Amino acid sequence: MDHFAVFCTPQTILYGRESFKQIGEEAALRGKKALIVSDQVMTSLGYVNECQEYLEQAGVESEIYTGVESEPTDDYVSEGLVLFQNTNCEIVISLGGGSCIDTAKAIAILATNGGYIGDYRANRTIAEKAPIPHLAVPTTAGTGSEATDVTVITNTTTDVKMMIKQPAFMPAVAIVDPLLSISSPKQVTAATGIDALSHAVEAYLSKRAHPMTDTMAMSAMKLIIDNIKSVYMDGENLDAREAMSLGALQAGMSFTNASVCLVHGMSRPIGAIFHVPHGFSNAMLLPAVLEYSKESCTERLADVGRLFQAEKGASLSNEEAADVAVASVKDLCASLEIPNLKTWGIDENAYINAISKMAADALDSGSPAHNPRLPTQAELEELYQICYDYKFTSEEKVRSYAQQEGEC
Question: In what order do the strands lie in the sheet with 12-15?
């Protein structure tokens, strides 16, 4: 390792079934009134009301902001911040997917440091004052945002997803209760699961990876690979839900300390312009980006391939195991019915016209710089074209390696 390593986490992580019940006690340690940042889905499921009840039992008052819809925007941040300030709240609780958590991160920073959230991009403004205490409660096993110092907020004026990373954005508390993820629909379970896998894979392949991030990333990948199909087929499988929640948490801890790479760089512009949810766009891009990057990270990608074929992986060369990784990710996306961009419904002409801007915005985000293979603008434009109508199925290649092993 030719550089010193950093590994940051929330001050407190509560993990396991029924850990959500501790939200009141954790909040009471940090303030007397909370702003709950959530959405209408969480309200309809009863989670917001349940959260309020736990807070009330601990003597903590609460206000609710449920204006978050799909991907987080600067408008949501502004609305939530005004409510926070006007009601004299002292802490922020995010309850929901990554969009709710990212919105709450921005509110917590601006409440003490001021300004516009975009000012903090690329460290143009540093959050020097401690943020409002933020307790993050994810309800999907995907983003890992509860354990990262990153927020991604769309600038509604420029249609640019602003990736902002500073230590102050790390939540004070992460409460990961796998029981909350049971409510996730089948396709959301699939997309957020592949999203978590992409976090772990990119953290492992990143130029900034180090031994501690490698440990978390490998553990996360194994948990996700071993359980994602089970939880997709049976959302009530609590053991699989718990494994996926832990995998997503570990993946978040790994990538916030090692960085994501090209998948996320390409994903953000798709979300900003075509409003594809982050988990889905990452899932749509992962196989093609791995194919593109393979020649520059064969040995590390081989480690991923051996996780997919644990029984036969030891006998494969690095080149073969790297091919297995790409083929297995393709097959996994196909089996989980992940759509490509065309199937999602994005108009082809609109997509083609946006490719140049998306490629430029992706490079500008900084994430592609950590990819094993650094793309040019032209290569990125070509990758975007490939991804539009990408074919995921690759069972034949996976089976061919299995057959070779059987013949040896």
Answer: 12-15, 173-176, 134-138, 91-96, 33-37, 61-65
Q: Pseudo-torsion of CA 30, 31, 37, 41, nearest 10°? A: 90
Confidence at residue 408, expressed as pLDDT on a 0 to 100 scale: 32
- Among 52, 87, 88, 48, smallest CA distance to 67 is for 48
Write phi, then psi, for 91 (nearest 5 degrees).
-140, 165
Q: Residue for token digits 């403004």? A: 125
According to DSSP, the residues that pair with 65 across neighbouring strands are: 37
Torsions phi, psi of 259, nearest 5? 85, 150
Same fold, 12-181 and 184-407: no
Residue carrying structure tokens 């034949």: 396
Query: pLDDT exceeding 90 applies to what percent of the chain?
Result: 90
pLDDT category, 314, cuts 50, 70, 90?
Answer: confident
Domain topology for 12-181: Rossmann fold (3.40.50)
State how far the Cα of 125 lies from the Cα of 129, in Å rounded to an integer: 12
Compute the distance between CA of residue 72 and CA of residue 67 in angstroms, rounded to an integer. Answer: 10
Residue 392: count other Cβ atoms within 10 Å of its Cβ: 21
Say yes or no to pLDDT of 75 above 90.
Answer: yes
- Give the model confidence (pLDDT) of 6-52 as tens digits: 899 999 999 999 999 999 999 999 999 999 999 999 999 999 999 99
Tokens representing residue 9 in the block: 């986490």
Question: Rounded to an integer, what distance in angstroms lies between the CA atom of residue 209 and that of residue 203?
Answer: 6
Is the pTM higher than 0.70? The answer reads: yes
pLDDT score of 313: 67
Q: Parallel, antiparallel, or unpaired for β 33-37 and 91-96?
A: parallel
For residue 335, what are its two tokens? 């089996």
Residue pair 222/307 in contact (Cβ under 8 Å)? The answer is yes
pLDDT band for position 403 (50/70/90)?
Answer: very low
> What does the domain layout of the chain look like in residue ranges?
12-181, 184-407
- CATH superfamily of the 184-407 domain: Dehydroquinate synthase-like - alpha domain (1.20.1090.10)
Determine the residue type at 335.
Answer: S
* CA separation for the pair 142, 241 (Å, rounded): 11
